[in-house]
Q: What sequence folds into this?
């Protein structure tokens, strides 16, 4: 499994990457592996302010539907529209072309409460 060091991780298996005042959010390699083949991604929260751990969308796999949780509070500003026709990008490239949303965090300090790569690896090992 792949776990980029530059990202922060949540207990719900989302990752977040800060790019200036914008954050990119997706699901981890571990999560996509557990879900299996992803067939649909729905995000209806564009333009909405959502609290940390609030649901910003869902991901549907062959076996299940899973909520997507926001790692930090803020406004959802963009959905990766490539996922409309190619939801499997989450399976093949979860940290690259398979990103799910971009957002404007309310408080970048919230990110310090998330797991670093070593803590996340330890978390999923249990």
A:
């Amino acid at each position: 499994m792949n776990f980029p060091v530059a990202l922060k991780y949540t207990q719900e298996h989302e990752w977040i990457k800060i790019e200036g005042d914008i954050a990119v959010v997706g699901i981890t390699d571990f999560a996509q592996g557990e879900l299996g083949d992803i067939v649909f991604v729905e995000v209806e929260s564009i333009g909405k302010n959502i609290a940390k751990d609030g649901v910003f969308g869902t991901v549907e796999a062959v076996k299940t539907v899973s909520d997507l949780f926001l790692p930090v509070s803020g406004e959802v500003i963009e959905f990766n529209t490539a996922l409309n026709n190619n939801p499997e990008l989450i399976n093949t490239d979860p940290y690259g072309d398979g990103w799910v949303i971009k957002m404007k965090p309310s408080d970048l300090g919230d990110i310090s409460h998330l797991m670093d790569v070593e803590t996340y690896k330890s978390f999923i090992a249990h």
Observations:
- Strands lie at 8-9, 14-19, 22-27, 38-42, 49-50, 55-61, 65-69, 74-79, 101-105.
- The longest helix spans residues 117-125.
- The two ends are 15 Å apart (CA to CA).
